[in-house]
Amino acid sequence: FFCPAGSPCGLPEIIGYLNGTSIQHLFNIKTFLGTFVSCVLAVASGLFCGPEGPMIHLGALLGCGLSQLQSDTLGVHLQIFTRFRNSADKRSFITAGAGAGIASVFHAPIGGLLFTLEEVSSFWDIRLAWQTFFCCLMATFTTDLLSSSLYGFVYRGHFGFFEAEKRILFWNLLDMNVLAFIPTILLGMLGGLLGALFVSLNIKINKLRMHFFNSIPKLSLRKTSRLLETVLILVRILLMFCMSPHLFLCVAAAALLVENGKQGIAYLFKRGAHEEFGYTSLCTALAFYFILSCWTAGSAVASGLVIPMLYTGALYGRIIGLILVSIFGVQTNEHGAWIDPGLFAAVGAASFFSGVSRLTISLTVLMVSMLS
How does it sit in the membrane (predicted)? Predict the structure, then answer.
């Protein structure tokens, strides 16, 4: 009703704009506020989505606005930065802002640079690479600096003290065995198949969604229906949580689904907890997360797909790791330490992310930034 341009994920619109498609109201203050509020409420409410798509959109909005220093909405047209008021420089600042958005989410400046190179922009040169990388560095540094002293909106002291354990999920590297490549290859194939299934289902759901909404003649009813669909998704999630003691045969599955995406991924990546999650909890959480995240993507809420992709892949990766533990047992010696469900959860997360997005280089850098 108030900000239709801020309701989608944001990434396809940014890619479309940078490749020559003009989209109305994509870069204005109203869209910025709508996207920001929608993203915060969607992630905080427990919807199966992540902040990365809207953050890319918000970063691009800041790149566009701060480089132009003019706003038709506010009636502001400052004479500063007039040299940047051309399509080439405007596109460069939007690209840098989009990279800063993804870098701030994952604390990965190089990953943000490579993501924009591989996924976002079609026009690239060495000047834009330096500009985007510096912007990603500043975004990551600013996020870390604020996180060093603030927990939510509560000041906890130690401003500027960067705690390594807040960013590093895996402290030590593992000596690998050649046998580890067998389940890794299987996880890669599984990620490709499930990724293709996810994309296919999402396309079909969105076609049905658009067919249903377009069949409603009155515009106000159509917008109301889109709003009610999002409410329905949230109600189903709330009902699922309320029924979790009866629906799930164990508390572990409910814990996986109740936690926010990042915390849940950290649980699944946890090393040394071979039997913390059983087959029932992992399979139940996988089924619910796969279906509901597929349904949420494309609805009228500012949401991202990266966290759901990593979460889904981590779930079936940990299942594969649990199968290996069931076959070989819990290994404590250095030669068998690679048989760890947490390790294969990380591999599974990368495989599903790659299967859906078809990213390779930037995905590898993002995963390395997260895990080391």
Answer: Multi-pass membrane protein
Rounding to the nearest 10 degrees, give the CA dihedral for residues 368, 14, 9, 132.
30
Q: What is the pTM of this model?
A: 0.74
Amino acid 168: pLDDT? 46
Render pLDDT for 62-105 as a digit per residue (tens, 0 to 9).
998 888 887 777 777 777 778 888 888 888 899 999 999 999 98
- The answer, yes or no, to whether residue 249 has pLDDT greater than 60, is no
In a domain, 205, yes or no: yes
Looking at the fold, whether 133 and 273 belong to one and the same domain comes out as no
143 and 28 together in one domain: yes
Residue 166 lies in a domain: no
